[in-house]
């Protein structure tokens, strides 16, 4: 009975000693000092930090369907989900660290002694012995220095990191599908421009043939017009090829074999993204990749606590008991019961420098995780700054390109009229028509670049996560 009292006293003392925790409490690292997007003309400190759900940003019904299909079927998403499942299992294991271990074993032992041993010579003969036992063992380690608590916290950080990584994949996927879809619409618009150009140049070719017959132009003008039409036909082939390539890319993002992508038209598309209120530096907190990097640092921090706690003594309580008998018939007899309780404290002294090495490595990993977190924040701020400047640049550029196209269209009309009246050379018409085509294609490209810049800003501010 006294031994039981002693063991109970040791257990109570172990629980009391947990106030002597050697580990440190986690604090979020500060990497926001002097942070900015280098966009003082756009940034407003009063900006709202909420991010709209992707369905409210991308209102096109076809695009919504494609995004949802990608979120359901994309292979990267499915792989990220499996990472979450694995981390969840480790988390459950970490939470069970406070619980004791319990094992049960059933054993049968048959032994025959040697006659040539000291004991065998005393007996003078071989002795055969059978033994049966059912043994249960219970073990528990007191979390005196916070080692088990830190392991649990590290497992929680890893789990949350995989969740954040999954959200980061979703954010990237939404942006990639939206960007690809808008690019497909832009290619459709460029295809229509190419078809219209081929039609117009075909008419111009017939006109120049008539002018040649009338002696107004030479065969050179006819061939130049024909070359322009052939060039437009080749351009059409390139655009059609790019359309198929883009459709295939979107199919793969959806986790499907290449197929035709249903879509709306270029002229009807809009984006419900408002940047007039500005973007605050705190918007970076919305980004799942920033959160994942911070949780990676927390995991490394907690593992450093675990390594540090390994320098201190461990207190373990071990109990075993069961039934043991040399006669199977008496195995379940009350007299076959046995039990033992052991309480022990172990302090590492010499272990080949393993604990110190592990601690030094954990400190290095913690520093690497901090550097990765800071680099992630820097990259995130750059992406937002780049997107803001791209939006501003392409908005201004689109106005200029539209005016440029209008000017070239007027120039084509004037030069063609002058040519018909013998007041201009065909070289002027040729130059004007080629410039008009490029200007029309550039308008479409600039409009797509503006849409894509808004998509990238939405992604850079953590959009796409629901």
Treating each run of at least 4 consecutive H or I residues as one helix, how many helices?
10
What is the makeup of the main sheet?
Answer: 4 strands, antiparallel
Radius of gyration, in Å, reads 38 Å
| Poorly predicted segments | 9-20, 41-48
Our count of domains comes out at 1
Estimate percent helicity. 55-70%
User: For the residues shown, what is the average pLDDT?
Assistant: 83
- Which term fits the overall shape? elongated
Counted beta strands: 4
Label the structural class. alpha+beta
SSE pattern: HHHHEHEHHHEEHH
| Residues in β-strands, percent | 5-15%
CATH superfamily: Outer membrane efflux proteins (OEP)
What CATH first level would be assigned?
A: Mainly Alpha
CATH topology, which one? Outer membrane efflux proteins (OEP)
The name of the CATH architecture is: Up-down Bundle
Strand order of the largest sheet: 1-2-3-4
Distance between the termini: 61 Å
Signal peptide: 1-21
Protein name: Efflux transporter, outer membrane factor (OMF) lipoprotein, NodT family
Membrane topology: Lipid-anchor
Keywords: Lipoprotein, Membrane, Palmitate, Signal, Transmembrane, Transmembrane beta strand
Fill in the keyword field for this structure.
466 residues, 4-stranded antiparallel sheet, Outer membrane efflux proteins (OEP), 4 strands, alpha+beta, 10 helices, 10% strand, 61% helix
In short:
The chain is of the alpha+beta class. The protein has helices at 2-16, 54-57, 61-73, 75-95, 118-123, 147-213, 219-253, 288-309, 354-420, 426-460; strands spanning 101-112, 128-141, 314-325, 337-346.
